[in-house]
Every structure is written in structure tokens, then in C-alpha cells.
Amino acid sequence: MNDLQACVLKATIIFAIPLVTVFSTDLAAQGIGPDKLSGLVIDDTKAELVGEWLSSTSIGPYLGESYIHDQATGKGEKSVKFTFRVKKPGEYQLLIAYSSTGNRAAKVPITVTSGDQSGTSFLNQKKRPELATGFTPVGAFVLAADSETTVLIETKGTTDHVIVDGIRLLTDSELKTARTAEKTIPKGIVTVKPAVKKKAGTKKESPPPVAPTYVRKKTTKTFAQLTPSQFDRLLGLDESSELELVDDVRFFRRVSLDLVGRQPTLDEYRAFVKDDSLSRRERTIERLLDSEDFGRNWGNYWSDLIAMRQPEPQLTFLNYQPFRGWLAAQFNKGAGWDESVFRMVTAVGKIGDGPQGTFVGFHQGEGNRIAGELSRVFLGVRIACAECHDHPFVDMPQETFHGMAAFFTRVKVDVAQNNSDLINVTSKEKGEHKMPGAKESMKPTIYRGESLELGLSDIDRREQLGYWVVDGDNPFFARAFVNHIQARLMGRGFFDPVDDLGEGAEPLLATAHDALAGHFVASDFDARSVFRTIVNSRAYQAAGRAAPTVSADSTESPKDSPQLAAFTGARPKKLRGDEVFDSLVTAVSLPNTKGKTGKKSEAVRFPIPPKSTRDLVNEAFGYDPAFRDALINRTMDQAMFLINNDQILKQVDARTDSATVLAKLVKDEPDNQIVADVLYARVLARQPTVRERAIVLKHVEALADRERAFEDVLWSLLNSAEFTTRH
Fold first, then answer.
1. What percentage of the chain carries pLDDT values higher than 70?
2. Which of 159, 295, 467, 623 is deepest in the core (most CB within 10 A)?
3. Domains in the chain: boundaries
């Protein structure tokens, strides 16, 4: 056993020791100055990050100005590396700083490498750190003087949030001293003053509300799951229907963009082309559904659906990254959509600790806004027109809107300045909702349903509303979800606009819509089950529109048969902002560079948060997913971004010293035709046509500057409409 292996064993023993340190709650959310602590202390701001990490100050104490976490997404793709050298050789204790709550990862791998020795141990971040300053020792390591040492904290194999705040090296004697001195947080090391305590005699605050636990209820109706062929027949396609399927390569790009939000990588493309089995489409679908990118892509979709119409409060900037990460984790672990929405409706606590509170918290607990958006987003029913008066076009009195708003009248949201992670969703003890001009209070009333009595607590109201919203017997909830998926995959939903299923809206193929919604309920609201049914269907995989035949399984009349063609062959769809960014990463390894935070001044009290490359792409290409296709236009900002954005142009540099994907390809591959084929595969996930290949080779030959010529080719492909379109 070498020295490093011995310290890994020693670290394992340390983790087994019960931790009973009591923290000072007054200082629980304060920053500690790294220079105030003994030993070698390195903050996370000095580390090398791989992947997208999010900074937070929700739970303390923390080192410096904040800590970072992996958002519980991209597991195995993210890491943090600390690099340092010690001046004196000897044995050192390594301590890791993190903040602990129940949503932390239980087995975080930590690899220490020094010279030619390396060893890995694991840290349980659900346990409270041993020292009150947030540090826990993880092992003793023998280090040589001036030899480079790295501490690598990874997310591979973890669940829940991985927290990284900093590392610390202490000698045995220094650790012994720290264990005594840091049982509580010593005076003088906090960089931010603690909150002022309330004076004696003030009213005792009520305990914070607790979010209810969700238990799925049985439906009174019987629902059945659909096979892809049954779904086809409901769309008017049977085995005798004349229908040409899209070729394999186009199908591969289509289904990759739809399921994981990016085009195939070069390796994925080559593996797919090489696979000549008859089942490669089915196996590709399963691989994509099992990818973490599936949850990330569809978490982004639903986050955009909510965020695009959510106003930003004064004195802060809304950060949706925690919410996106939470949604991604929900989809990836197979949580039912009913459970996810229930938790959004009934959430309490700080957004940084429980991102499911984003929907209520970012609406600042404003009952009217929440009622209107909850109905639109999760039920596909627009009730906002009845806020100020009876609905002008359908039978919806004003009481319908305000009955829903009354469910949220006792929600209380504390908005934190300049840090949306600290927005806190809690409850008020009193209060009832009144319609404008009315004297009597409104009873919380379910849309087209029963009323609750006045006087119920905030949590009781939201819990009962949550259960009604996600109930399998609710005629709107499942139909709203599958309508969104059908619209995104096929280019047109059963209802259009996609968020208007209410009275007066005319559906296409109501029977197929109801059957797909029933399938969703029967699968316990499993999102993957809906995607699997649609993308395995002939309708989705069709090359174009078909002349359908109305089968015996369909209840549509012959006069409806022209409508059936609306759901054969996925219509071209403009990529969302995240899909454009992730496809740029796939095509040219575009880095997600983060800008610098602006400085506070007398004129600027709240500097705009730094924008990453992903943020900039989303600003140019993002849109409300509920918009009709006719309202989603290509803009001059989008064109100019792809034409001359500095970061993109850096990736379209073929000079050897640029170290880009293009530079390596041109240097390593002397055959111009192969270079052309690889660029088409990377950017468009297909091979060039005979004509396209001839144009490229002619251009390279005519320019007599091979590097510059292929820069032109790559730039042209990235600026093509095909690159930003799913077809």
C-alpha cells in the first residue's frame, strides 16, 4: 500500500465519524474570508471548471462571496479542479468546503493526484461539515515540495446536487487547533455582517410552512396505453396507406433535435451510418431517451414556456438555471409530470434550496398572475381575459378567474435584492381574495368545479388545487401536456395555438388527442412514454404529407380526412435558442464563455449579471414555445450573430495555432473531399450532395489558400437556414 492509498483508507474512516457540530444560525448565510482562515485555503473562484456550474449563496456559511453547484444535471460531464504546490514537504490534511442540506449528493468522488500517485475517495455532502466554517477533512496526504498537486471533484455517479466551495490544507497540529477554534464561527472572519437580531419582546414568528408530499390518486376512468401503430391508425394511417418514410440520416437528425435538443455528434453520426441493422431507429430512440440531454432539453422547453411571460421584479434579476436543472432531473429520473407540477404549485422555501418554487416565487406570489399562467401553461386554458370582466367571446364569467386566484391569496413571497436564489416562498396567516368592486370574499373555486370554504390555510388551498390540477380525471391536464409534445414533434398540435384548449377552440382529430392523453394517464404521466409512442410512429417518420385513409379504428368522418394529413411528416420547425447553442457546441465545440460581473456604483446599484455565450444565443434565437409558427420569425439579430459573433468566428479559424476543430481537421486530413464530408456531417449531420461537394472542391482549388477556403465552407454551413431548422 502506497502513501496515497493509505490516506484514502484514512479518509474512509474519517467519513464514518458522526458529525455533531452545532452551527450558528445567525451566521448561516454569511461569507467567510479565505484569508481569515489558517492553512492553505483556495476558493472555488480559483479552480478550473468543466461544464456549467451555478453560483449560489442560499445556504451558508460559505467561502468568499458564494459557492457553486452542478444543478444536479450533466452528471459525469462536470468537474472542478484545484491545482497548487506546497512549499514544505510532509503530510497534510485535505479539507473540502461545502454547504449541506437534504438535496446534496451522498457520494461525491474526490481524486487527489501528486506526482505519479493518485487516489480517489468519496464525500457524503448530505452530512453537515465537521467544522462550523463549512470544512470537512477527507484524508491525509504526503506531498513533496514544489510538486504540482491537483484535487479533482467530479459529478460522475452522483445524484442530487454536488457542491464545491473550496479546499484547505492543514498540518495535523493545525487541524487539531481548528477543531477546537471552529466549533463555532470565530469572530472577525465573516466578510458580511450577520442579520440584526430581533429585540426581546417582539412577536414570535410562526414556523415556516411545509410543502405537502404528493401521493398519486387512482382515476375513476379506465385509460389504455397506445402502440405506435395504434396511434398511426387514429391519425388515419393503416398498413395499406401509401407513405414514404424519411431516409435514415434525415430521421436521425430529426429525432436527435426533438429528443435531446441538438444535432448528432460526429461520432454518433458515424456509428449510426455504420449500423445496418433493421432495428437501428428503435435503438437510437431508446438511447436518446436514456440520455441526460433528454431531460435537459425538455426542462429547457418548459422553463422557456413559463419564463417568456413571467415579469421580472424590480431590484433583482431572475435566474432560471436552478429551475432548469430541477426540471431536467425530474425528467431524467422518470418522475411523473403530475408529481412535478404538484410540487411547483405547492412549493415553499428559498428558490436556491428548492427550485420547484420558481413558478410561484418568480411571480412574486401575485395570485392573479399565477392563476392565469397556471391555467394556460399546465391546463391549456386561457382564463386571463376574465380578470377584469366577463370573457368577451366565450361563456366565462369574471368569477371563474377570481375563484382560481383565491387559491393563492395567502401566498407570501419575499423578493431578495439582486439574487433570485434568495426569493423565499412562504405563507400569510390571514387574507381572502375579492373581485374588484366586490364586498364579499371569493371562495377558492376550481375551474368549472367545486368551491372550498373560506379560512383555509395557504398550504391547504394550494394542496387541494394541486391535486385537482394533476388528477388523471381532469379533462385538461394530460391533454395540455400531450398537445405540447405533439406540436413540437409534428409541427402542429391538436389545438393551435398550443396553449388554448378551452371553450371555443376547435381541435383537429379530437379522438386521437383524447387517446394520446389517456395513454399519458395510463403510463402514470411518464413523459418518455408519450415521446416513444409518437417518434416510433410512421406518421412522425414520414418524408412528407400523405393522402390518408380513414380506418375502422378512427371515429373521424370521411369529411375530416383532409385534416389527417396535418399529422404525417414532421413539419419544419425553427430551433429554440438552447437547441441552436447546443448544436453549435456539437458542430464546432463553441465554448460557453461567461462575461464579467459589472461593478456597483452610485449610478448602478444592481449591475446586470454577466451573460454567458448560451445567454447571448438565447437572446438572439429564443422564443416563446407557445407561439404559432407564423409568429416565430427569423431576424436580423440572428443573421448577424451567426455572421460575425466573435466567439463563433474564433471557432471558424483554420490556422494551426488556433487549436480549433477546423484547424485540426485541415491539418490532419490532406484529402479535401474528406474534409468537406466531415464538415457537412458535423454541421448538418449528413453528407453533401454531388453538386454541393463539387462546389466545395472547386472553391478550395480556386482560392489556393486551403485554410481560408475551408473557413468559408464552415462559415457558410453555420449560416445556412438548414442548420437552425429541424425538418
1. 89
2. 295
3. 3-181, 228-244+475-571, 294-470, 577-726
